[in-house]
Design goal:
The protein is mainly alpha-helical. The chain has 12 helices and 2 strands, in the order ααααββαααααααα. It is globular, with a radius of gyration of 20 Å. The two termini are about 30 Å apart.
Length: about 350
């Protein structure tokens, strides 16, 4: 528990005080956000605001993880390192996308194929490694079983080891792509994605600590959890939570800096990694319900326009629909934060309820 608290505090402090330094660096370099002309006109005033702030979140998380382990004398776990690899790797893809946008002052960064290839490469490496490194109890960081609040009887390795690995890699890619793109679509208003991410990371702090206390490796029983490194995953989640909290001080309206794709892809990757390695793959759909809702709004809008020629929303993603209805940006952000908090509460409620009732 001490390491979790240290990770949260260090990442918060680093992001809180490191962000203004990064803002000054970006301003000096002239690295400002390009604003699309087809978006809400109110966003034109944000043109030139420093972006790529997600780099602060990633670096603060990595540094806080290292400090927490040095101070407590604990060795990093494979699970923790894998989630941080996924987070940093996705952040690097986003950084390349952001850099091209701001250096060439255009809305298109990496081509869609290049961006997808980068995300896929990072996710594939993560997925393959997650099925390696068994500990003394022969537990690997990930499992080929599809999970909700724990592994379900649905096992992707039903047709053999090789096929199971391939299916798991595909499944992991779906989770990573869905989560990272969900956060990316949510990152359209000042502080919206950052504040929602704080809540989801916080839920994984609680889940990791609970799984650690009820783990089959040292507390066997019918309700125990088969997670390899739950305590270290809680530390990683605390790093993400604290870094987002510190960054939110500068990212809240009126934002002094945007996280950019560097941040949104990194945060989505971090949450996906936590979901896969805590064996809560489907639960993240509930915990990140706001991200799912906003993603669905885009899918519905595109499907409706292509099939009927009509739009369901004034504009997608959903937050921009409410902007065009006349809602103030701060009002939308706060109300969407409330929705995000309700989804997190529901997800944690389902997680705890399953333990109370007992493993199925």
């Amino acid at each position: 528990m001490k390491a979790v608290l240290i990770a949260a505090v260090v990442s918060l402090v680093l992001a809180l005080f490191g962000t203004p330094t990064f803002i000054r660096f970006l301003v000096k370099k002239g690295y400002g956000q390009f604003i699309r002309d087809d978006g809400p006109t109110s966003h034109h005033t944000k043109r030139g605001t420093p972006t790529m702030g997600g780099a602060v979140i990633v670096l603060s998380s990595l540094a806080a993880y290292a400090v927490a382990h040095v101070v407590t004398g604990q060795l990093p776990s494979v699970s923790g390192v894998l989630v941080l690899f996924l987070m940093a790797g996705m952040g690097l893809v986003g950084f390349l996308d952001d850099y091209i946008k701001i250096s060439k002052q255009r809305s298109l960064g990496l081509r869609s194929g290049q961006k997808l290839a980068g995300q896929t490469l990072v996710a594939v490496l993560f997925a393959i490694a997650a099925l390696q490194f068994p500990n003394e109890s022969f537990r690997t960081p990930a499992s080929t079983a599809v999970s909700f609040v724990r592994d379900t009887p649905v096992n992707l390795a039903f047709s053999g080891t090789v096929v199971g690995v391939i299916l798991f890699v595909i499944w992991a890619n779906v989770i990573v792509a869905g989560t990272s793109n969900g956060v990316n679509l949510t990152d359209g208003l000042d502080g919206l994605a950052t504040g929602a991410s704080v809540m989801v990371f916080a839920s994984y702090v609680l889940i990791g600590i609970w799984q650690f206390n009820q783990n089959c490796q040292w507390n066997p029983g019918t309700k125990c959890y088969e997670v390899r490194d739950p305590h270290d995953l809680a530390i990683v989640a605390a790093c993400g939570m604290g870094a987002c909290f510190g960054f939110l001080w500068w990212n809240a309206s009126p934002a002094k800096i945007f996280m950019g794709d560097t941040g949104s892809l990194a945060l989505g990757g971090g949450l996906a990694g936590l979901a896969i390695l805590t064996r809560t793959e489907l639960l993240v759909v509930v915990l990140g319900g706001l991200f799912v809702t906003i993603t669905l709004s885009v899918i519905i809008q595109v499907a409706s326009f292509k099939t009927t020629g009509k739009r369901v929303f004034k504009m997608a993603p959903l937050q921009h629909h409410f902007e065009l209805l006349g809602w103030q940006e701060v009002t939308i952000v706060i109300r969407f934060w409330i929705v995000a908090g309700l989804f997190v509460a529901l997800g944690l409620g389902l997680f705890y309820a399953e333990w109370v009732v007992g493993a199925g």
